[in-house]
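A favour, since you know our structure tokens better than I do. Would you make up a two-line entry for one protein for me to read? Write everything out right here, beneath this request.
=====
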Amino acid sequence: MDKFRMMFQFLQSNQESFMNGICGIMALASAQMYSAFEFSCPCMPEYNYTYGIGLLIVPPIWFFMLGFVLNNNVSVLAEEWHRPTGRRTKDPSILRYMFCSITQRSLIAPAVWVSVTLMDGKSFLCAFSVNLDLDKFGNYSFLKGMSETEKIKVLARIPCKDLFEHQEVRVAASRYIKCISQACGWMFLLMMTFTAFLIRAIRPCFTQAAFLKTKYWSHYIDIERKMFDETCKEHAKSFAKVCIHQYFEGISGEMRSFHQHCSSKDDSDDEEKHKKSDEEKLLGIRAQDDMNKVLWNWHTCKPALALKKDQMDGKKNGSLNGESNGTTNGFVKGHTHDVGKKEWAVYYSKV
């Protein structure tokens, strides 16, 4: 269990590298899926074009959506987009940066699929075989006397070896269409590479400070969300420990006295330390309604990103405990359920 926890923490700390690895695996998977995929053209005029173009378009769309699903930053982007403004304004440039970053990673696997499909040429042959002019491919006398509908049916059978009798014409037509498909594939790769080059080359031409600002705050939003989740987990764990201890103390005081009598002095000291640490992790929030208000206010009114450097004196701290912190957590004048004001603390955003 500890190994899985260490692996999870490593993936969290290296999320960008992990997502790049996921994109690479998806790209290899797309190429492997195409090579393992059995291409079967229907060889019917009504379905050839739909099947060939569908094989070229539908799987890339699926890979693109899968890239969004596997990217954890999608939920961060959605939360940042829909959250109320509150005390913290929303910067559209940060949202655009996060969306562009997610989109770039999600486009890798679809680009690989389209490139492999065009290089192979089978889907292109299936889709456009009915548009061929067989005058260019030698003996086409077998088409004489046929109606236009019959000719289209014969041309639709070119991708199928078993259904087309004239193999020389079929091979010549297949090579012709595959050459066009491969040319389109190289043009697609050239276009994608040139676009990536332009993005890399043009980015430094704009204000670098603005780019660094959006990159910093996008990372901050992601890290803040992770740290908030970790803090909530620690608080929930400590809350459960203290609640269970208080339950057993109230129900069975004899059981607790028995354990204290049997345990050594060092064990009792360690137990006291653990109790104190659990009490500190509660951060003064000791009631279900109070925690619900804290979570609600975190969503509706996140704290402003402005840290205070100087330490406050006791009087100022006391007033903030009664008013500022009470207002932040949704309480009126620092009121809590059966908890004194001395147990409250002032919280600030850790940028």
